[in-house]
Each structure stands twice: as structure tokens, then as C-alpha cells.
Amino acid sequence: MLFQDIMLGLDRFWADQGCVIALPHDTEVGAGTFYPTTFLRSLGSAPWRVAGVAPSRRPADGRYGDNPYRFQYFFQYQVLLKPSPLDVQQVYLDSLYALGIDPHAHDIRFVEDNWESPTLGAWGLGWEVWMDGMEITQFTYFQQVGGFDCRPVSVELTYGLERIAMYLQGVDHAFDVEYAPGVTMGALRGDFEVQHCRYNFEESDAELQRLLFDKYEFEAKRLLELGLIHPGYEFAMKASHAFNLLDARGVLSQTERQTYVQRVRRLSEASAREYLSQLGELETAPEAS
Amino acid sequence: MADLLFEIGTEELPSWYVDEGRTALAQLLEERLADAGLAAERVRGFSTPRRLAVLAEGLPERSASREELRRGPAAEVAFDDSGAPTRAARGFARSSGVEPDALEIRDTDRGRYVFARLRRGGDPATEVLPPLLADLVHDLPAQRKMRWADVSTAFVRPVH
Fold it and tell me: Which residues of A touch B (CB under 8 A)?
């Protein structure tokens, strides 16, 4: 199955489950969880179902394309269902059929995985889903987001598309995956990956990123105070990416790193607070201790 | 005598809880049955990645009868000069489900008090068990519990 057919198959499947098929957000994020359609919409009481491809950037994870599984830019397929359906495990297994995988023909396991994002003030419990010993999905019941307890609880499903495609196509490197007929992932993204690795690890200007972080943080706070949640949260995402670049560049001491994490976290929490406040649910939202 | 099999169906438990949960469930059920006057002859736990179960064998069909003393107001405010029960005593008798005549005065280390003698137990196990088992699911100890959907119960993984 072509890489693009995997994405289209999941879109079709989750659209049929009542999900909005959302387009990728055009700000750099470390994971689909940062998307406003996940982070903000998992807060508050209103039901919500969304799915879609979430390109993600983790500068520190780049390996110049040498490692078959690790990249600084990769595709997650992100699903958020609120409240979490009682039959969500079965629905997830059904989604594998959309990828041409018969779950009965494979060893599918749900292995405990407790997820935490310090920069988002979020944590959840769930599993890594293993297929024949390889992790293909993260399955998480959100317990807290932005420092607030989730009521009701959302479930987030994150498929690792590259490795699923590698498995389905029987290739050993994500760059060998056939994305579209006659076009490999490597042809599409190889140069991009290698050049960004050079930038992230060797060429990015740490002083510029520090300055940008300060400016983004200031702007996020200012906008959130004006009640402009969406622009404000976008600057929080930009600050988070600037921090990730500094982290990849190896210029942060352990203490400094912690301070940056806390600064991003405060922006996430302020965004969550303002979002709940505008929903009129701040008073009823149980704040985590 | 009867046997009780109780199962909690869950989504995949963390591996550490498959053993821990089995032991905890058997222990807690054993304690709660004894407290309710339904002590079983033998209690055994079972578990799989998606299920905790407990088998209590040799369970009485009714809970054991026993008497319990419930303390009420001080004796001096419970009866007036003529020895008739005051409002305080009548209220205590009513809330204890006994007649005012049946109240007893007993000496305690804090003075003389009125007591009601309550009969407890003798209830069919089929009535005692449903709330007892529901509480078992709530109270089962675990290091870390989670919530799901809009269900108010917390457990190690969602219960079905």
C-alpha cells in the first residue's frame, strides 16, 4: 500500500467515525498533541472528534537520514475522540483493516505506556500498540491538559505512519517507502531531512533562537491577556519549537533546560485557562493540584 | 452455602497490575465479606491481561445475625423528672428504629448514656452483595488510577 493511500485510508475510516478531517496546522509542532484541534479542544465539556495527518518536528531526533526510523520531521496520524468511546479499542482494531492489516493475522498487543508532556502540562495513561513486536500507535486517555483535569476524558490515537508503511511495503528504511507511484519518501524528503539536520545540529544560531524564544513568549502572554487565544497559543507553539532547536543545538545546561520547559508550560497553562474561561467553564474545570 | 464468582472486565491492564490486582481483589473481598457477616470458607483470585476475578467459596446465604449497641444522648437529658423520655430520647429512638421503651441506660467511662440495642445481619447475601461488590471496584487499591469517557469511577484501566 502506498504511503499516500495509508493517509487516505485513515482519513476515510475516521471520517466515517464522525471525525472532522482537519488539515495539518502550519506552525511547527513536536507532536500532533500540540495542534489546537487536540490541545485546546480536549479541554471543556463539548464533544469533539477530529483526525488527520500531523507532520511533526523534533529537531533532536534527526539522524541525517542514517537511522531508518528516526527523523527530525515525520508524519503522525492524529485522532482525538471526546468523550473516549467505550468501544474505542475495537474501533482502533477496525481501523487497521483500512490499512490492509488483518488484526487476527498479527500479534497485536496493548503494552502499558504512561505519557507525559511537561511543556503542555499534560499527562495520560494508555498503551503503545505493538504489531508483531513493533510499536505502531500510541493510545492515550488524557487525564490532564494544560494543568486542568479532563472532564470528560478524551482518547488520543497517534499512528506512526512511516513505520507502518515500512512494514506494509517490506522495506528497511523509511526513505525506501513508496509514497506515490514511482516516488519514494527519500526522493520527496531526503534532502530536506539531511539539510535540516545540518541546520538543527550545526548551523542554527543559538543566540537568535534565545532571542526569538523571549519575543515569542512575550507575545504569547500579551495576546493571551487580550483574550486572543488562537494567536496567543500559536506563539506558545513557536516558543516551544525555538526551545526544541536550542535543545538540539546542545547549548542548554540541565538547569537552563528545565527553566525553558517551565516557561513553555506556563504558556500552555495560560492558553488552557483562557480557553476554558472563554467557554465559561473555568469555574467548573477541576484544576490539578 | 453458596459460591460467588466476581469478575471485573477491563481493557489491557499494565503487566504489574495483573498480579498485584489479583492479590488485592482477593484480600479486599475477603475483608469486606467478613465485615458484612458473610465470611467465606475460601477466597481465591484470578487474573488475565483483561480480567480480574475472585472466587469466594462456602459463602453463607444470609449474613450472620449480631447485636450492636448504639450510643445516644446522656442519660440526664434523655428522661425528665417523671422518668418519661424527652424529645432527645424519642428522636434518638426513632433514628435507631426502636421504641423509646427499649432504650437502655449504661455506665461508660464518660458517664451514664442511653443506648439502643440494634439487630444487625440476617440479610440475604443476594441483597448485601451488589453494593458491596460495587464498592470493591471503587476501593480496590492501585498506585495509579485513571478516568475514561464521562464515567465517574476511576480504575487502573477502563472497566467494561
Answer: 83-86, 89, 109-112, 114, 124-125, 127, 141, 143, 150-153, 155
Q: To 5 degrees, how large is the angle CA A244–CA A278–CA A124?
A: 45
**∠ CA A73-A186-A159 to the nearest 5 degrees?**
45
Give the whole-angstrom CA distance, residue B147 versus residue B154: 5
Number of domains in chain B: 2
pTM of the predicted model, to two decimals? 0.89
Phi, psi of A176 (to 5 degrees): -85, -5
Q: What is the ipTM of this complex?
A: 0.90
Residue A125 and residue A247 in contact, taking contact as beta carbons nearer than 8 Å: no
pLDDT digits (tens, 9 = 90+) for B93-132: 999 989 988 899 999 988 999 999 998 888 999 999 999 9
Whether residue B91 lies inside any domain: the answer is: yes
Residue with the bigger pLDDT between A288 and A155: it is A155
* Interface test with chain B among A45, A48, A86, A114, by most B beta carbons within 10 Å: A86
C-alpha grid cell, residue A204 = 542554527
Full set of structural domains in chain A with CATH: 3-200 (3.30.930.10), 205-279 (1.20.58.180)
Asked whether residue B144 is domain-assigned, the answer is: no
Structural domain including B81 reads 66-120
Please report whether residue B135 resides in a domain.
Answer: yes
Please give the pLDDT value at position A130: 97
Q: How many CA atoms lie within 13 A of A62 on its CB side?
A: 28
Q: Who's near B82: CB < 8 A, 6+ residues apart?
A: none
Q: pLDDT tens digit string along A87-98? A: 999 999 999 998
B160 within some domain: no
Q: Are B34 and B77 contained in the same domain?
A: no
